[in-house]
């Protein structure tokens, strides 16, 4: 263990921790744009700079290892001036369209502009124009809003292992793109969208839905495969408008294309909305009331049991439905009907 | 699951997903993890980045092979020969964990004897894997401090599926890779709540918590709890239900949240079964191929509209919470099932409380008696969790195996050959599976515009050498036939499949792979052989 002081507070961390991690342990807030604890330190945004006794210049806390006896200062007039200038420089080349931006209210850059009270910008001049239409069905790319934090590139390489995107160009012309600037053709996991700190990356299917106003968040479990990812459903009224995942859960906020983007079926027009009964063999299914449908089921099951015995009835439960439903289903067959003819598709 | 339960006394993932990144070696066999369990695959990639050695055994060049230290491209249906040969090497080179074998297993002598014939040289022509690679794999796996095995339907959907599971279990036992973190035998469950459905007793031979229906003691316990006499006769497994329907032994069926008329191997036969029924009730959120055959269709709530719990692959019980109301008159499955239960019992109909139902299960299955909704509100828990202050169990068998005597059982695994291999009439071996962008029969994913846009149509993967032989170009429409049916679909000429093996994803109803697949059964657990059948391809 290593002991150091940050803003005159003493903290103990394991060897190999960074100064930023030590500060987090003390719950000291240091602004960052390119940092994500789930990835390797990068040191691109320069916002996490701190002063360390004995070092001539401020250093980035996310890439500086904590050392025994270090004395760190996270806030000073000098540091705040440098940070403000960094944000001003980023904003000097950023479209000023927060009002219509999908990330308004959850944008790190917007928060920083607010924090430093940047209304006017000292740095005029040319603006990049890297926007182009990407025809992929999932991910909206607005490159003019990119701050080159590199989180999307890193998550794609370090976490997803796909490396579908990278850097192109130098200096002012630097940008993130896929090979040869083709349309994205990747696994569409959307990990990049989830880590983007600005409106540069979003989901096409989010567009037009409210960003925050009236949106309710519900913590639940994904319905697809057996990974059991924790997801957050964003809903407005009875419509699911977005799926996200918190970073502090067992899947660490990572989702796949189905979990993140495959939610439209919930509000599909094709959903069954009323019981249906086929009143004669070979006829069509016709709408019925719940009372009629359930009475028919109860009567038919009773009649078959009476005539042919309980083992003439069988049930297929569902690996898609809840534990409670499965329990009740097998109880229905075993106890109310009297047969063990109950199974599900675990075998398939 | 029958395989693991017989060997270890419990049939579930022995270890946890988070532990994967601490494994020093990984053997992934019969699991296209990146496409079917994408988030578990992230942990595997992380393990590799941290220096773990990854062995992938798969006939197809699945995406995970990019990260593999060693890729064994064995022929479909030869998994257990490959595994036996690895174990032959382990014994021949003295790499086994003698302490573990002596102290924690039984049946070793006979088992070791049975491996003698499975030399790498014997396995090479059968599996198509060079003997030297089998040796390498054996060494990587056995020499690692802790090594995990991860598998899925790729080794179980075979006539020798139970044997294959026995073989992976044997391999872990032989090297002492059980009862410690980052190791174990880990079946990756294909659906959100397969584990839970099994746990809850949606199986013909067990009550909730794997308590046997033919044990008089267990029967008495449940009779007392439910207040009704119960049957001690083991029920029909799903794969034998079709035959029972056709023979007229099964007259009425109730299916919820399943689409067997598309997902069952040899669907033509399955549909004939459903059509023979006197009465079929299907409960689902959409019209499916199965509701098309029903007499009564009941509209359900989706997962976003209900309260309950799912248990994922790693035995983790987690809350499901409603975000929205169901459309129209759709109702939660629990309410519908409960009403039918109460009316059949002549009881007054009441609105069921999921929390009370869960508490009822917890009172009947000691493995989760420490789990409650109150705790699940704050955390998720991995069973076994026997008491309210128990933290849950990340990995099983630390002290003992829950079998009589507390030891794990070695099982002799003989060579079994797939029931239908290619011949002159049907010269190609068809294997089936899923792709990343769709899920099962596509009732959900094919209604997502984005997913449907990137994966709009079925396809058959065929090796360039075979395409050349047949005069087929990429994208050509072909007729693919087996002894059970014919489908028409475009080709995808690709080296993902080896020569003489073709692959079709089973999501697409317009070209349903399961019209071709075989319903030959594993004699022990009655799984159908969806992964191997013989087909013919015509332009």
Summarize the structure.
The complex is a heterodimer of chains A (348) and B (539). Chain A is of the alpha+beta class and 348 residues long.
Labels describing this entry:
heterodimer, A: 348 residues, alpha+beta, Ubiquitin-like (UB roll), N-terminal domain of TfIIb, 5-stranded mixed sheet, 3-stranded antiparallel sheet, 16 strands, 24% helix, B: 539 residues, alpha/beta, Dimethylsulfoxide Reductase, domain 2, Rossmann fold, Barwin-like endoglucanases, 3 domains, 6-stranded mixed sheet, 5-stranded parallel sheet, 20 helices, 21 strands, 17% strand, globular, metal ion binding (chain A), 4Fe4S_Fe-S-bd (chain A), metal-binding (chain A), Formate dehydrogenase (NADP) alpha subunit (chain A), iron (chain A)
What is the count of β-strands of chain B?
A: 21
- Span between N and C termini of chain B? 40 Å
Radius of gyration of chain A, in angstroms, nearest whole number = 28 Å
Number of domains of chain B: 3
Helix content of chain B: 25-40%
Low-confidence stretches of chain A: none
Structural class of chain A: alpha+beta
At the third CATH level, what is the topology name of the domain at 2-75 in chain A?
Ubiquitin-like (UB roll)
- The low-pLDDT segments of chain B are none
Label the structural class of chain B.
alpha/beta
CATH class wording of the domain at 2-75 in chain A: Alpha Beta
Question: Mind telling me the C-alpha Rg of chain B?
Answer: 23 Å
Largest interface: A-B, 108 and 148 residues
Cα-to-Cα separation, first versus last residue of chain A: 51 Å
Kindly report the spatial arrangement of strands forming the biggest sheet of chain B: 17-19-18-21-16-20
* H/E element order of chain A: EEHEEEHHEHEEHEEEEHEEHEHE
CATH class of the largest domain in chain B reads Alpha Beta
User: How much beta of chain B, percentage-wise?
Assistant: 15-25%
Please estimate the helix content of chain A. 10-25%
Total of helices of chain A: 8
């Amino acid at each position: 263990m290593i002991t150091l002081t940050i803003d005159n507070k003493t903290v103990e961390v394991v060897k190999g921790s960074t100064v930023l991690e030590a500060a987090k342990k003390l719950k000291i807030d240091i602004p960052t744009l390119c940092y994500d604890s789930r990835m390797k330190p990068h040191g691109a945004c320069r916002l996490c700079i701190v002063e360390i006794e004995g070092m001539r210049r401020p250093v980035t806390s996310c890439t500086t290892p904590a050392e025994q006896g270090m004395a760190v200062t996270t806030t000073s007039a000098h540091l705040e001036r440098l940070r403000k200038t960094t944000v001003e420089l980023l904003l000097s080349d950023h479209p000023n369209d927060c009002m219509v931006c999908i990330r308004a209210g959850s944008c790190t850059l917007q928060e920083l502009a607010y924090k430093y009270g940047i209304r006017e910008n000292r740095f005029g001049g040319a603006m990049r124009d890297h926007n182009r239409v990407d025809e992929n069905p999932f991910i909206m790319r607005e490159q003019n809003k990119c701050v080159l934090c590199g989180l999307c590139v890193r998550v794609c390489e370090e976490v997803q292992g796909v490396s579908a995107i990278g850097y192109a160009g130098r200096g002012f012309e630097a940008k993130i793109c896929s090979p040869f600037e083709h349309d994205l053709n990747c696994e569409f996991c959307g990990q990049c969208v989830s880590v983007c700190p600005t409106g540069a990356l979003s989901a096409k299917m989010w567009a037009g839905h409210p960003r925050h106003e009236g949106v309710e968040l519900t913590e639940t479990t994904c319905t697809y495969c057996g990974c059991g990812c924790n997801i957050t459903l964003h809903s407005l009224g009875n419509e699911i408008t977005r799926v996200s995942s918190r970073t502090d859960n067992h899947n660490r906020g990572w989702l796949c294309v189905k979990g993140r983007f495959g939610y439209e079926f919930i509000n599909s027009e094709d959903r069954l909305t009323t019981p249906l009964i086929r009143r004669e063999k070979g006829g069509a299914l016709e709408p019925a009331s719940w009372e009629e449908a359930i009475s028919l089921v109860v009567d038919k099951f009773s009649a078959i049991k009476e005539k042919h015995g309980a083992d003439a009835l069988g049930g297929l439960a569902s690996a898609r439905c809840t534990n409670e439903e499965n329990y009740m289903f097998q109880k229905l067959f075993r106890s109310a009907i009297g047969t063990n003819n109950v199974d599900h598709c675990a075998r398939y | 699951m029958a395989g693991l339960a017989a060997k270890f006394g419990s049939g579930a993932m022995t270890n946890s997903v988070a532990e994967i990144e601490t494994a020093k070696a990984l053997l992934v066999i019969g699991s296209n993890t990146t496409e079917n369990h994408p988030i578990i695959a992230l942990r595997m990639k992380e393990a590799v980045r941290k220096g773990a050695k990854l062995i992938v055994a798969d006939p197809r060049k699945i995406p995970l092979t990019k990260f593999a230290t060693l890729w064994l491209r064995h022929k479909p249906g030869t998994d257990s020969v490959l595994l036996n040969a690895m174990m032959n090497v382990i014994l021949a080179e003295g790499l086994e964990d003698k302490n573990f074998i002596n102290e924690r297993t039984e049946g070793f002598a006979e088992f070791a004897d049975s491996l003698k014939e499975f030399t790498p040289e014997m396995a090479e022509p059968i599996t198509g894997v060079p003997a030297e690679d089998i040796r390498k794999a054996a060494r990587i796996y056995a020499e690692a401090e802790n090594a995990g095995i991860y598998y899925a339907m790729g080794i179980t959907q075979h006539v020798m599926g139970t044997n294959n599971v026995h073989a992976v279990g044997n391999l872990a036992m032989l090297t002492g890779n059980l009862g410690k973190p980052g190791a174990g035998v880990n079946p990756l469950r294909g659906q959100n709540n397969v584990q839970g459905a099994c746990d809850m007793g949606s199986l013909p031979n067990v009550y909730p918590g794997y308590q046997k229906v033919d044990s008089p003691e267990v029967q008495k316990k449940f009779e007392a709890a439910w207040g009704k006499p119960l049957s001690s006769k083991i029920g029909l497994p799903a794969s034998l239900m079709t035959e029972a329907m056709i023979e007229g032994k099964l007259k009425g069926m109730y299916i919820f949240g399943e689409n067997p008329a598309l997902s069952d191997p040899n669907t033509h036969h399955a549909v004939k079964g459903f059509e023979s029924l006197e009465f079929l009730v299907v409960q689902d959120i959409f019209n499916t191929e199965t509701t098309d055959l029903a007499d009564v269709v009941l509209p359900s709530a989706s997962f976003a509209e209900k309260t309950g719990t799912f248990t994922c692959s790693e035995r983790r019980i987690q809350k499901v919470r409603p975000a929205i109301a169901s459309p129209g008159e759709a109702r939660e499955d629990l309410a519908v099932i409960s009403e039918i239960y109460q009316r059949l019992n002549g009881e007054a109909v009441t609105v069921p409380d999921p929390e009370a139902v869960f508490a009822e299960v917890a009172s009947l299955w000691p493995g989760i008696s420490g789990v409650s909704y109150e705790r699940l509100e704050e955390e998720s828990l991995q069973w076994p969790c026997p008491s309210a202050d128990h933290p849950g169990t990340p990995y099983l068998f630390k002290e003992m195996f829950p079998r009589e005597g507390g030891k794990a059982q070695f099982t002799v695994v003989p060579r079994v050959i797939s029931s239908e291999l290619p011949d002159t009439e049907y010269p190609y071996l068809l294997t089936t599976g899923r792709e990343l962008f769709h899920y099962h029969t596509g009732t959900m994913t094919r209604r997502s515009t984005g997913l449907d846009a990137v994966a709009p149509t079925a396809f058959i993967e065929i090796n360039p050498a075979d395409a050349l032989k047949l005069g087929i170009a990429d994208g050509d429409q072909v007729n693919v036939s087996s002894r059970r049916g014919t489908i028409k679909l475009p080709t995808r000429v690709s080296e993902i499949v080896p020569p003489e093996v073709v692959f079709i994803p089973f999501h697409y109803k317009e070209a349903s792979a399961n019209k071709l697949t075989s319903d030959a059964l594993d004699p022990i657990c009655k799984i159908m052989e969806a992964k191997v059948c013989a087909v013919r391809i015509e332009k």
